[in-house]
Design goal:
Strand order of the largest sheet: 2-1-3-7-8-10
Number of strands: 11
CATH architecture of the domain at 27-254: 3-Layer(aba) Sandwich
Radius of gyration: 26 Å
Helix content: 40-55%
CATH topology of the domain at 27-254: Rossmann fold
Distance between the termini: 35 Å
Structural class: alpha/beta
CATH class of the domain at 27-254: Alpha Beta
Largest sheet: 6 strands, mixed
Length: 633
């Protein structure tokens, strides 16, 4: 199915003559992003984009509300409060980044937990942009206000690519399609034009351009947007033609405010220095000194009760944007001597100080407990609290902490929580139900039960489900007598997984193409192409190692197919893949590099810098994946 992203901008005939944005003008922003979609639907760059934009907006005095990895009800509640708060603002900016879909010319943003398998389910499970814009327009207060809507993402939506039952006359596009209605005096910015979708490596183009061209000192809105358009076209080599509406009367100029936050209470009896402390906290957070930033904000919280809610928002923003994806940052906050993270997580006093009851702080404990043995008990404690309150993500994280102990009792506890998450139709819970049955940990070891849950996940559009079906079928075939085996279904499942963007089975699939097993045909060239795909598109270090190993073995080969395969990858590139694979910890690659005196330390760093991910965390995750592979095989 051809997936199309088309964004039509509609203008009011009346023009709005915008005044310059003065120091007295109030500017507000609502930044909403989802990254933790399941499987290959994840939008890992969306949180980085939100972070960058918030930093820029703060520099220009915007009062920023963030809404990250939200459910539908969380978004609706936060946006309703934002619109009410924006009534007296001169400028209201709304940024959304997530998967989208359309039906009957209405667009929908996919929140967390929107397991849409049919187009008709979108109105009841997703967030309608028409209603969102109408709510923004209805809350203008007594003055005209400029609304700026930034719609980012524009990626092929794996949920919608699996959707069934397309109604007659409805759109079958999986990206944001068009907006049939825009309130007057609303500017719309989108990184793509008609028929265009973003590739993964283009996911930061729009925010990078906004931060470098629009939100800069003395930049006018009109000229800034023109520059944004040019930069995106240039950096995409002419492939993308952004949809940006700049046809409005007057000018609006952004200028950095001397103070990024102004307290609403100007009573001279308020203790001095609190405004400076809050500004200092923002500067520290911008520099990555998160523990110092939070410590400064807590001083404001304790000394200025009237600013408590704003301070909680600031702390929540720091915890959400900088900690969740990188547990090393969370670990440092837990171990910081500058404040007690427990106070942020608890709803009860800690050492005589009021608890802030922040779910974001508890999440840091969850993930730190999952990754670091010294924080396991703390992680278990806080994940249990949220799991008992019905959070399915907490249930799965708690289960994974239990599984670390490798004891029958903990395996049973893990299985109980996984079952509860699965009953809520949480996709990660369904996948783990299949995995526990596959491994026989805490649940009956049953390939049929594993297949049932993997199929359920695949029906919901999670490619890890079809990957799991491949593992189950492979195990079943290997258990048969040799003369009864047929690996055609294994080939089919793994191919489907690769085609849907999950590259973990790339090495298995490639080796099937070399095996000549019943139901397969020997195809060396296809084998190496799959390994290249797994190595380069999936950044799968096992694929990197197998590719190097097979090509290394084939250097003396006289077979035409292997000579063609060798020509696909230069010898320099082969050894680069070997070193990256070894640096990421793949055992066979490490052994080979050490035996041959090949220096591989830090080889993966440039790749991680290119992706914008934590090098230490990436290595950490790779090692866990290898341990899981050994257990499954």
């Amino acid at each position: 199915m051809r997936l199309i992203a088309l964004f039509v901008v509609v203008f009011s005939h009346a023009t709005w003559h915008a005044p310059p944005c003065s120091a007295d003008d109030r500017c507000v922003a609502f930044v909403a992003a989802v990254s933790e979609y399941p499987g290959n639907a994840a939008l890992y760059e969306s949180m980085d984009n939100a972070d960058k934009l918030v930093i820029s907006l703060n520099q220009f005095g915007f009062e920023v509300t963030t809404c990250l990895d939200f459910t539908r009800s969380e978004f609706e509640s936060a946006f309703e409060n934002f619109c009410a708060d924006a009534e007296d603002a001169a400028v209201a900016l709304v940024y959304i980044n997530g998967h989208g879909g359309s039906i009957q010319r209405e667009n929908y943003l996919f929140p967390l937990g929107a397991d849409v398998s049919r187009v008709s389910e979108m109105p009841s499970r997703c967030i309608g942009l028409r209603a969102t814009l109408a709510e923004l327009a209805d809350n203008r207060g007594q003055q005209e206000r400029l609304n700026v809507l930034i719609v980012d993402g524009s990626r092929s939506n794996p949920f919608m690519s699996r959707a069934r039952e397309f109604e007659e006359g409805s759109a079958d596009q999986s990206a944001f399609y068009s907006l049939p209605y825009l309130p007057r005096n609303t500017i719309v910015i989108k990184p793509t034009g008609p028929g265009e979708l973003l590739e993964t490596n283009e996911g930061t183009l729009l925010v990078d351009a906004l931060c470098s061209e629009l939100f800069v000192e003395k930049s006018s809105l009109r000229k800034g947007l023109e520059s944004v358009e040019k930069v995106i076209k240039k950096k995409s080599n002419g492939k993308l033609d952004p949809s940006i509406s700049i046809e409005f009367g007057g000018e609006l100029t952004f200028a950095k405010k001397k103070t990024s936050v102004t307290f609403p209470n100007t009573d001279q009896n308020v203790p001095g220095g609190l405004t400076e402390l809050r500004n200092e906290a923002k500067q520290l957070a911008d520099k990555g000194e998160f523990d110092s930033a939070i410590a400064a904000l807590l001083e404001v919280y304790d000394q200025s009760p009237e600013d408590a809610e704003k301070v909680k928002k600031d702390i929540r923003s720091i915890l959400s944007s900088s900690s969740i994806e990188n547990p090393f940052v969370g670990k440092s906050l837990i171990e910081s001597g500058k404040f007690k993270l427990e106070r942020l997580a608890s709803d009860s006093p800690v050492d005589g100080n009021e608890g802030l009851d922040l779910s974001e702080a508890r999440r840091i404990y969850w993930f730190s407990g999952q990754w670091f043995v010294q924080h396991r008990e703390q992680g278990k404690r806080w994940a249990t609290l949220d799991a008992e309150n019905g959070d399915p993500e907490a249930m799965v994280v708690l289960a994974r902490i239990h599984l670390k102990s490798n004891s029958p009792e903990d395996d049973k506890a893990a299985a109980a929580w996984i079952e509860k998450a699965s009953e809520k139709e949480y996709q990660n819970g369904i996948i783990w139900m299949g995995t526990l049955h596959f491994l026989g940990r805490g649940l009956e070891k049953s390939l049929d039960e594993a297949a049932k849950h993997y199929q359920q996940a695949w029906d919901l559009g999670d490619p890890r489900g079809v990957e799991g079906l491949g593992h189950v079928e492979l195990r079943k075939q290997l258990a048969l007598p040799e003369n009864e085996r047929n690996f055609s279904k294994v080939l089919k499942y793994y191919t489907e997984a690769i085609n849907n963007g999950t590259y973990a089975p790339a090495a298995n699939l490639a080796q099937l193409h070399l095996s000549g097993l019943p139901g397969t045909e020997i195809n060396p060239l296809e084998c190496f192409k799959i390994l290249m795909q797994g190595a380069e598109e999936g950044a799968d270090s096992r694929s990197m190692w197998v590719l190097f190993d097979q090509l290394n073995r084939g250097r003396e080969s006289t077979f035409v197919e292997e000579k063609e395969a060798l020509a696909l990858v230069s010898e320099e590139k082969q050894f680069e893949m070997l070193k990256i694979s070894a640096d990421l910890g793949f055992p066979a690659a490490v052994s080979y590099a050490q035996a041959n005196g090949i220096d591989f330390l830090s080889a993966a760093k440039p790749l991680c810098e290119e992706w914008g991910v934590s090098y230490e965390f990436w290595k950490f995750r790779q090692r866990e994946k290898y341990a899981s592979l050994r257990e499954q095989n």
